[in-house]
Design goal:
Keywords: Membrane, Transmembrane, Transmembrane helix. The chain is an all-alpha fold.
Length: 52
Amino acid sequence: MDRIYDWLLAAGYPREGVDWIRRHRLLVLVALAILAWLPVVLIVWLFLRLLG
């Protein structure tokens, strides 16, 4: 995770934002997991709707 924090800082992300991410690591991981699965769920839903 430290590499990600360093990369965010190098990319210009503010230090306050990185500190917030460090404090709320579980919340950030859950949000990223939801965002990763959202397109899959939408594609399956659209496919089932077209068949149905």
